[in-house]
């Protein structure tokens, strides 16, 4: 283990050293944010869109990280919550003309409810049952979206209006770059606060030893359900903004592959480690762009990479402690 | 068509579908029995089995033809080849993880599944592969009901494989060792059983059954696709859970029940074939909520 850590540290070491050092962390984050804030004019539209997508995945991956990394529950249907957010906003704004900002809390509530419905009965079961049930749930949501009239069947919803915020029409790719950057920063902030909270510590105990945690008075089903609901809300938020960004959504955006991609981001970077998960999100978005020449082999390369990570470095590529057990 | 004819037709369809589910569910349940792992790659091994069977048939059809005789031979070759692949996967990916936390091994299994899927995707370019056979369309008429010979051979083959498996598990030394390993690894070691070899045998047998189902499904439906293992993997898992995971008769029973439920379920007005898959998952969730031990499973309190 130690040898491997040293190897990885050589690659990401300086980055991790800065992130772990409390005196350097603040200024480093400030510089990073400042660069990201002033970058768009220099980036060109292609890079802006890719980075926007990466921010979207940071939100999704941090949401799934709460379920997988913090609470230790394998969710293979996370795209379902992403879909619930996107479709709630899409249907309400496009079919019923409701203002986007009104639909946002509704989308969160619906996703939370979906989390309770699917998690409530299954969180008591074996963890691998949960994985399959979430997989089935993800498929149910996608197939339902394909077959129902209100969701626009297979072709999905189009013409979702872009929102206004105090006279600012959020419409151009650059506008959305800033919106998703803000969302990503918010997601990081909430994740950090959650990890240190009473609930975050409860998740940690439950993940390491359920029985001991229960003996300490932690209601394991309740804290798991909390992780599930909070994760669902992250996904729904991402979905809501995803819908207005593209203006059109279709069921295939929320397939099993989508869930897998988000899970890859969490696992590659390092379950439970926020900088690792952010790095993972960037890897799964920018990696395929760099591998464009590989064509059909791209996904295979990623799958093999994931397998190698699990076999040789299950705590992810980000060096450091508190690995997902 | 009168109601009784529809029922009879769906009964036949359900039996065929159920045979596939049962064969795949058996491997799921056996592997779960010995190492308590949900092998997510199992459905993909069914898919690979279909492709290997197809390649084997293409290679030998010049000599033996591509009727049922040729298909049987191809199926045997596929079972051996893919069975070895199953053992290889277990050795490379799962064996080092046996004592790792459950979350890690589950994600590893998912990664194996993705590697298999995308390897076939890269090889086939994501296109459907036509599985040419000359099986004919003959059959017998029982009054208004038509049952094709293909359906009969298929169900009989599946039944034969299951009988052979039942014999293997209950009457051979390996089978006895397998049942012992499913109960307690450490105690088996003390009794002189080579646990890791038995796990290998289990992977071979379980995967070979999936490969047999894959070859037969390819020949029966006439096409192969890199993603065809995904849904059947999920449904076979559902079947295994209905029967009680870890229980071999349970997997057979669960497969048949799910096959019948599905073919009758699509006949209910308002459900239709578009909702067929939702129906299966709804059954899965209901079973897990109402009777998580399944029909023939033993009650088990286990936590992560």
Structure write-up:
The complex is a heterodimer of chains A (325) and B (304). Chain A has 325 residues and is an all-alpha fold. Chain A has a domain at 49-268. Chain A has helices at 2-20, 22-38, 40-70, 79-96, 100-122, 127-147, 173-196, 198-208, 210-215, 220-246, 256-269, 274-290, 297-312; strands at 164-165, 168-169. A two-stranded antiparallel sheet of chain A has the order 1-2. In chain A, α7 (173-196) crosses α8 (198-208). The model of chain A has no long low-confidence stretch (mean pLDDT 82). By secondary structure, chain B is mainly alpha-helical. Chain B has a single domain, classed as ABC transporter involved in vitamin B12 uptake, BtuC. In chain B, 73% of the residues lie in helices and 4% in strands. Chain B has a two-stranded antiparallel sheet with strand order 1-4. In chain B, strands 2-3 form a two-stranded antiparallel sheet. Chain B starts with a helix and ends in a 14-residue tail after the last helix. The chains are: A mainly alpha (325), B mainly alpha (304).
């Amino acid at each position: 283990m130690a040898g491997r850590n040293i190897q990885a540290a050589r690659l990401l070491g300086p980055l991790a050293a800065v992130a772990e050092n409390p005196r350097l962390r603040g200024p480093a984050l400030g510089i990073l944010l400042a660069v990201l804030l002033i970058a768009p004019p220099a980036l060109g539209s292609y890079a802006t869109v890719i980075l926007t997508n990466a921010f979207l995945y940071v939100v999704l991956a941090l949401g799934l990280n709460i379920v997988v990394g913090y609470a230790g529950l394998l969710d293979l249907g996370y795209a379902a919550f992403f879909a619930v957010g996107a479709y709630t906003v899409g249907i309400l704004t496009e079919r019923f003309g409701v203002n986007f900002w009104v639909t946002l809390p509704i989308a969160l509530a619906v996703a939370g409810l979906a989390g309770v419905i699917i998690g409530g009965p299954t969180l008591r079961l074996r963890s691998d049952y949960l994985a399959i049930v979430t997989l089935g749930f993800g498929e149910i949501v996608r197939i339902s979206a394909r077959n129902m009239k209100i969701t626009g069947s297979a072709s999905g919803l189009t013409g979702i209006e872009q929102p206004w915020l105090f006279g600012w029409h959020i419409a151009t790719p650059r506008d959305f770059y800033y919106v998703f950057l803000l969302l990503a920063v918010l997601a990081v902030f909430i994740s950090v606060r959650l990890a240190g909270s009473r609930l975050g510590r409860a998740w940690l105990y439950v993940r390491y030893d359920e029985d001991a945690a229960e003996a300490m008075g932690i209601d394991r089903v309740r804290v798991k359900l909390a992780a599930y609901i909070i994760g669902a809300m992250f996904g729904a938020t991402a979905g809501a903004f995803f819908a207005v960004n593209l203006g059109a959504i279709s069921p295939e955006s929320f397939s099993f592959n989508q869930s897998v991609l988000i899970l890859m981001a969490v696992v590659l970077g390092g379950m439970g480690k926020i900088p690792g998960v952010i790095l993972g999100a960037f890897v799964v978005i920018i990696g395929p762009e760099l591998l464009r020449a590989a064509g059909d082999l791209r996904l295979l390369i990623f799958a093999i990479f994931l397998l190698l990570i699990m076999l040789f470095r299950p705590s992810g590529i980000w060096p450091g402690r508190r690995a997902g057990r | 068509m009168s109601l009784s004819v529809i029922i009879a037709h769906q009964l036949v369809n359900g039996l065929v579908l159920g045979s596939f589910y049962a064969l795949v569910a058996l491997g799921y349940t056996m592997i779960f029995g010995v190492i308590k792992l949900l092998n997510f790659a199992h459905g993909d091994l069914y898919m690979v089995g279909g492709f290997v069977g197809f390649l084997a048939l293409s290679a030998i059809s010049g000599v033996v033809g591509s009727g049922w005789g040729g298909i049987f031979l191809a199926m045997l070759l596929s079972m051996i080849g893919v069975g070895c692949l199953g053992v290889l996967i277990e050795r490379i990916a799962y064996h080092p993880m046996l004592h790792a936390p459950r979350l890690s091994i589950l994600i590893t299994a998912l990664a194996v599944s993705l590697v298999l899927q995308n390897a076939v995707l890269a090889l086939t370019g994501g296109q459907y592969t036509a599985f040419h056979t000359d099986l004919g369309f003959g059959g017998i008429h029982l009054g208004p009901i038509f049952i094709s010979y293909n359906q009969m051979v298929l169900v009989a083959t599946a039944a034969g494989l299951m009988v052979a498996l039942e014999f293997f598990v209950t009457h051979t030394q390996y089978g006895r060792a397998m049942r012992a390993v499913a109960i307690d690894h450490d105690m088996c070691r003390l009794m002189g059983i080579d646990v890791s070899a038995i796990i290998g045998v289990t992977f071979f047998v379980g995967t070979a059954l999936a490969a047999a189902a894959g070859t037969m499904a390819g020949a029966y439906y006439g096409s192969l696709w890199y993603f065809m293992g995904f849904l059947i993997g999920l449904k076979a898992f559902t079947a295994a859970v209905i029967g009680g995971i870890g229980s071999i008769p349970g997997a057979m029973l669960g497969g048949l029940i799910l096959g019948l439920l599905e073919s009758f379920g699509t006949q209910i007005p308002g459900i239709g074939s578009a909702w067929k898959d939702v129906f299966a998952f709804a059954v899965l969730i209901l079973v897990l909520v109402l009777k998580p031990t399944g029909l023939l499973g033993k009650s088990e309190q286990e936590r992560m």
